[in-house]
Amino acid sequence: MTDSRPVVTRFAPSPTGYLHIGGARTALFNWLYARGRGGKFLLRIEDTDRARSTPEATEAILKGLQWLGLDWDGAPVSQFEGRERHAEVAREMLEKGSAYKCFSTQEEIEAFREAARAEGRSTLFLSPWRDADPATYPDAPHVIRLRAPREGQTVVHDAVQGDVTFGNDQLDDMVLLRSDGTPTYMHAVVVDDHDMGVTHIIRGDDHLTNAARQIQIYQAMGWEVPVFGHIPLIHGTDGKKLSKRHGAVGLHEYAAMGYPAAAMRNYLARLGWSHGDDELFDDAQARAWFDLAGIGKAPARLDFKKLEHVSGWHIARMPPAELMHELDAYLAETGAPALNDQQKHWMEPILPVLQAKAKTLPALLEQGHFALITRPVTVEEKAAAALDPVSRGILAELTAALQHASWARDDLEAAAKTIGESHGLGLGKIAAPLRAALAGRSSTPSVFDMMLSLGREETLARLQDQAG
């Protein structure tokens, strides 16, 4: 499947709700294919369904793509705004004879189908106006239909599915222009893709039958047919079509669960596409490797355990500045307050420690809890058990010993070890009251990592608050 033209792909969502994870994957595949070949990735909002299309849904889709890190070329195109162009092409087909006016009413069409059902023959509507003499046309409302070939076959040369053949006797003379002059979705899509110079149409395999009908419009207009690649849908773990019963289906839900955008790009790329045995990769590798031949024909299955593994791998490798950006985006998505300068100042030094273990952003924030709180530290019940009178006395001794200590890890450990030994205690026993004083919890990062992040002044203040 080759095409010498510069690659142009597109993502064409209908703005009737949030960005579904399946749509996000389709957008990603188109983006990767174009970006990996120096091509263009275009965005078209298919808003011809005026009753269901909303500005809020359009905004949600744009926001989702931006969060996922997919940039597009040029301004988003509104399909509705091109309706005059769609009608113009339909009228041109009418003049060329590749389309015709049909005056059949809905009642007549339904009567035809009822008779066909009763007689056991195909209910595909055969318009009596297909070959009518224009001189017999009544002055009445009409639609414009494609004069589709009745014999032979239409073949979709699909880069994913292979050649898929449709008998032309199974494809109807579809409506191009409704009686009110508005274009149908099927017609508008072809005109838009042609006018936008789209060379590769990568979309869900639920559009495969549409491709056969749309090819007939390309052929009727003498336009070059783009390369099609119909990708299998995403299924849940039970092998059934993904729905809300399987958990999150909206991209925004994954953002709110704290999966970084880089991890989602990696995971979604592998959801139905493969490059050997590579499971974990960055954007540059994905752009270089992605091709249509690597897309499987079987539906992909959503696997949260695998997503978590991918997420942990990306979090562990993120530069601190990028990770802080991801944390800001996560907090904004969930409506939580942004980190202030003091919190960032305490959090950044310990990021390498936290990101080595965290699988998600909220897990990282949970481990970094000590950097997000202010004095006086609220001590949880389980941690408070470590703050008996003896332990508080030890904290007082340690506070005094650390007043003039070099704020280096070895010196901090040595000071704690010395005081512990004077009480016949190892570092493990000293750590529990330190955790309680510094974080108010019994499960924290290393107490010395926390001390280094908080700095001398804040560490000593927290210890003094709990000292006996």
UniProtKB/TrEMBL annotation:
Q: What is its main location?
A: cytoplasm
Q: Where does ATP bind?
A: K244
Q: Where is this motif: 'KMSKS' region?
A: 241-245
- What are the transmembrane regions? none
Q: Which GO terms describe its molecular function?
A: ATP binding; glutamate-tRNA ligase activity; tRNA binding; zinc ion binding
Q: Establish whether keyword ATP-binding is in the entry.
A: yes
Q: Which family does it belong to?
A: Belongs to the class-I aminoacyl-tRNA synthetase family. Glutamate--tRNA ligase type 1 subfamily.
By its UniProt entry, which PANTHER family does this protein fall under? Answer: GLUTAMATE--TRNA LIGASE, GLUTAMATE--TRNA LIGASE, MITOCHONDRIAL-RELATED
UniProt-recorded name of the protein: Glutamate--tRNA ligase
Q: Which organism is it from?
A: Paracoccus limosus
The gene is: gltX
